[in-house]
Amino acid sequence: MTAFLESNPGLKSRFNKFIHFQDYTAPEMARIFEYMLEKAQFRATEAARSDIQGVMRRLCENRGEHFGNARVVRNLFEQVQQEHANRLSSIAEPTRDELLIWRDPSEENKAGVSFRSWT
Question: How much is the pTM?
Fold first, then answer.
């Protein structure tokens, strides 16, 4: 936003108030991710919950100038949904638990993009 405002010398003077939003912390990002899981009626295994917290911590530690942390959480959640669907497609008659419990594919050593690959 700063670059945009400074791209035109008169543009910045047209705004008299600026609001700065702090980035979410790693624990906040983990809570957002878990909220998205709950909203989609998924449950995460304990190992997956631990992975969520670790991934969010590493994402925050390694963030760059253009890091969009809420967007990253949403993108990660969408990838998790896709991985889960891919895993289920190989099961002829999945149980209710298989449908609703999310685990990191690396927990089962299944093929797929690991949740940990995001760091």
Answer: 0.73
